[in-house]
Amino acid sequence: MHCTRKHLLFDKSYFISFNQDSMNIGEVKSHLLTQSTQHTKYSIPLTLQTEIDWKVSSENLLLEAFSIIWKNEQRYFYADPNVLLRVKNYLGGRVSFKRIDIFYKQIGKIENRSSTSIYTIQGFDDDKVYACKEVKKSKQHSNKLFQNEVETLKQLNHQNIVKLVEVFESENSYLIVLELLKGGSLSQCLKYCRLTLNEVEIILKQILETLCYLHEKGFVHRDLKPDNILFRELGQFSNLKLIDFGISCKIPDLEKDSEMSFGTPGYIAPEILNNTNKKRLSQKIDIFSCGAILYYMLTGSRLISGVSAQEIYQNNKKYTLNNQILQKVKAENYRELLSKMINEDPDQRIDARQALNYFQLMTVQTKGSLSTSLHCAQDPIQKLPNFRKLITKS
């Protein structure tokens, strides 16, 4: 791919190439009569600290150039719009872009909080609709949350993990463009519906398979909860996505970042909150959270509850598994699985692969292949005509 740097007296042509860690811009130098060599002049690292700005033609609104900061100076490189789109597509998610408004327009809001907003955006070039997560820089640890989410999603590729498209940075915010999930959250579903065992199977299988993938790739989510499990389409439980990797980390880094709080009370593994037990943190913290979700799906009640956030936190901290908790679960096989997932002692808790193996053996013993139920399930969402209004208001 070729581009041009414009100078006062003459323009200079360059070639653009990529490797795993950098974008290289260089000159083609001719030697003798026929030989030529490529000499790299600019090597731009593919990290989120690298900012790429864009210039759009005032006549037809097509991309005209991109710019980099080199030796504290902004340098523009002009190219054909199709070349620039190829550059942008390759760099998407690897570096930070400027000026999101020249690529997308905002068309709706999904969630608005003091420090984070999520809204829908539509691309000018293809009319596709995406979700945009805006992390305000005024939020405490905003840069780390942004870095965690993007760096984690860059390294993951799984059908049940939300897809990263690209990232932007403005003066006041970090902006993460993601695939749009239109089916609402598991939290919204559980608020209005009571799941059948067949539906619980469909959802749990996907969560456990995703956790196996995540943990085997060396990551821990750290904030698994119904709010962070979304469905691609309304009424289709067989296609869920795990979202919100802002506090995710590599497994060896679990005990770092002590100044940050992790997880949501009611779903936090007790060993995170109870420092007196001196248990080392592991990927099993996600399994406790998954068990709390499973308990909610099976019983319609939360595993750890309270009348206030502080009470939930304290109950979470002193949580102990007992028979009274398990007796609320009517399905005996699930009761046994849960006892292995929500044990307060991580040494007695199973990991993701063990949980998935137990679950698969359990479902094979109780009935036929789960793949059949994926096509036959009638979700309770489809039986509630006002559910679409409910999830847009909640």
From TrEMBL:
GO terms for biological process: mitotic DNA damage checkpoint signaling. It comes from Paramecium tetraurelia. SMART domains: S_TKc. This is Protein kinase domain-containing protein. GO terms for cellular component: cytoplasm; nucleus. InterPro entries: Kinase-like_dom_sf, Prot_kinase_dom, Ser/Thr_kinase_AS. Gene3D superfamilies: Transferase(Phosphotransferase) domain 1 (1.10.510.10). Residues 104-361 form the Protein kinase domain. Pfam families: Pkinase. GO terms for molecular function: ATP binding; protein serine/threonine kinase activity.
